[in-house]
């Protein structure tokens, strides 16, 4: 981007921020930075500008490169909520495109500051994710230097394989389990037989004392936060290994609201970038038209020239619901919904049959011959199909249930509440990763395709 274009973008950005404040957007300050396209792609793939090194990010980078080369993916911006927020724009995008992106980012920043889920997780994880991630990456570099790539990579393999396996209902910083069962100081009353016995002549009525407290089971109940559990209870985990698990867990907590509110958040940002551009009378008409063309590309329901989409575009769906809500309930009601909901409440409460039909949403099923068939247009089925990939952070619901006397670990797949089957091949690989850091046998109880019980056991660690 030339210096003239850069100056123009800075001027438009400043004036759009003033307009956003005038229209009632409330957000932490945003630091904008123009970066080359290859650096932007690295940020998008790694999830952060500086992050712990691991081979899986390289695989994702190649995948993203192929998608971009085929025209299936284009990254306009990456934004990190915090105080301040950090936003990255591509320096060779046009001024109209980056003007739209600035307005879009302000919508994200408003959502992140005011949505209760974002606020809760930012309170726990802090508002300086980039600095925290860079510090963690530095510590892992030091571990690589001291312990070697093979050992550090084995721990990262296990931790990143369990990245979504946190318990979002727990606190980020939580205490360890009690080491002993609580003792009830009130003596137990004797049962009826003992009372009759002690009432015999010459016998003295005694009260039965509560036995001394005993060691509590670990875990005391099914534990779904596997990263936290392994970090704190793996028998031989060293301090630097524990730090890696807790670092991955903290980043997973930070990203959860982005995952759980994606449709709401992208829709809210798209609504506000469209409105800000529409009301920004200081923008030249040719720039406005180019920016609106970019807006249409972002919120279209299908990609390229296809006239049918077999996956939901969160920008399109979220934007359509917010427009419908604001038109029918007003902006104040929309702001209240923005504060209180995540995608589960948003879709179930505000995607109705009329809007689903207008957006031509349906549930489909595919056949082995490659054919596609519309399976359902019922609104309840549509909602659940949209939300199904979001349950439990998109991962099977697995709990640690018991550490046996030989320190082997037992995991259980909660398939009844999960509603999601296991890829048994992948489950076996993840189990091997876990066994390397647990350093004892690890077993997983699940069900097979036919509904029969299955137990997968790791090889000898």
Structural commentary:
This protein has a domain of 148 residues. Helices cover 53% and strands 10% of the residues. The chain is built from 19 helices and 9 strands. The protein has a 4-stranded mixed beta sheet, with helices on one face. It has a 3-stranded mixed beta sheet with strand order 1-3-2.
Strand content: 5-15%
Characterize the overall form.
globular
How many distinct beta strands? Answer: 9
Which secondary-structure class do the elements indicate? alpha/beta
Low-confidence runs:
57-72, 303-309
Number of helices: 19
Strand order across the largest sheet: 6-7-8-9
Main sheet overview = 4 strands, mixed
List keywords for this structure.
alpha/beta; three-stranded mixed sheet
Please write out the topology.
Elements: H1 3-22, E1 30-35, H2 37-46, H3 55-69, E2 77-80, E3 85-90, H4 95-114, H5 116-125, H6 129-147, H7 149-161, H8 192-198, H9 226-233, H10 239-260, H11 262-279, H12 285-298, H13 314-329, H14 331-340, H15 343-350, H16 353-358, E4 363-366, E5 372-376, H17 379-387, E6 398-403, E7 409-413, H18 415-418, H19 424-438, E8 442-447, E9 453-457
Parallel strand pairs: 1-3, 7-8
Antiparallel strand pairs: 2-3, 4-5, 6-7, 8-9
Q: How do you describe this structure in short?
A:
With 461 residues, the protein is of the alpha/beta class. 53% of the residues lie in helices and 10% in strands. The protein has a domain at 129-172 and 217-258 and 396-457.
């Amino acid at each position: 981007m030339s210096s003239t274009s850069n100056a123009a973008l800075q001027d438009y950005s400043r004036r759009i921020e003033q307009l956003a404040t005038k229209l009632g957007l409330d957000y932490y300050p945003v630091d904008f930075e123009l970066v080359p396209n290859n650096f932007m792609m690295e940020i998008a793939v790694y999830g952060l500008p500086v992050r712990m090194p691991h081979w899986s990010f390289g695989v994702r980078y190649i995948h993203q490169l192929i998608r971009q080369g085929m025209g299936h993916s284009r990254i306009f911006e990456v934004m990190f909520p915090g105080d301040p927020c950090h936003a990255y724009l591509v320096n060779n995008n046009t001024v109209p495109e980056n003007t739209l992106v600035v307005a879009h980012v302000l919508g994200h920043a408003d959502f992140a500051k005011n949505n209760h889920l974002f606020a809760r997780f930012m309170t726990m994880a802090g508002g300086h994710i980039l600095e925290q991630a860079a510090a963690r990456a530095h510590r892992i570099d030091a571990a690589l230097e001291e312990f070697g790539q093979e050992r550090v990579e084995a721990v990262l393999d296990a931790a990143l394989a369990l990245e979504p396996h946190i318990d979002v209902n727990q606190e980020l910083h939580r205490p360890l389990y009690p080491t002993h069962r609580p003792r009830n100081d009130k003596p137990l009353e004797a049962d009826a037989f003992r009372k009759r016995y002690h009432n015999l002549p010459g016998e003295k009525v005694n009260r039965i004392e509560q036995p001394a407290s005993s060691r509590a089971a670990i875990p005391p109940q099914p534990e779904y936060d596997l990263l936290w559990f392994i970090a704190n209870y793996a028998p031989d985990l060293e301090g630097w290994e524990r730090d890696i698990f807790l670092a991955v867990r903290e980043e997973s907590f930070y990203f959860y609201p982005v995952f759980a509110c994606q449709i709401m958040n992208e829709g809210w940002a798209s609504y506000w970038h469209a409105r800000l551009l529409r009301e920004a009378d200081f923008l030249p008409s040719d720039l406005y038209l180019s920016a609106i063309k970019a807006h249409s590309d972002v919120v279209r329901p299908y990609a390229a020239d296809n006239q049918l989409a077999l996956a939901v575009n969160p920008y399109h769906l979220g934007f359509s619901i917010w427009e419908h809500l604001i038109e029918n309930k007003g902006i104040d009601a929309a702001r209240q919904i923005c504060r209180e909901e995540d995608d589960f409440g948003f879709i179930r409460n505000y995607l109705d049959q009329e809007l689903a039909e207008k957006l031509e949403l349906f549930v489909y099923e595919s056949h082995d011959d490659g054919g596609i068939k519309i399976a359902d247009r019922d609104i309840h089925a549509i909602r659940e199909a949209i939300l199904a990939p979001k349950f439990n952070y998109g991962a099977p619901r697995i709990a640690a249930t018991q550490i046996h006397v030989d320190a082997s670990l037992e995991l259980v797949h909660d398939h009844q509440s999960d509603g999601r089957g296991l890829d048994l091949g992948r489950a076996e690989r993840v189990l091997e990763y876990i066994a390397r850091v647990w350093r004892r046998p690890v077993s997983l109880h699940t069900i097979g395709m036919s509904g029969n019980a299955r137990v997968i056991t790791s090889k000898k660690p």
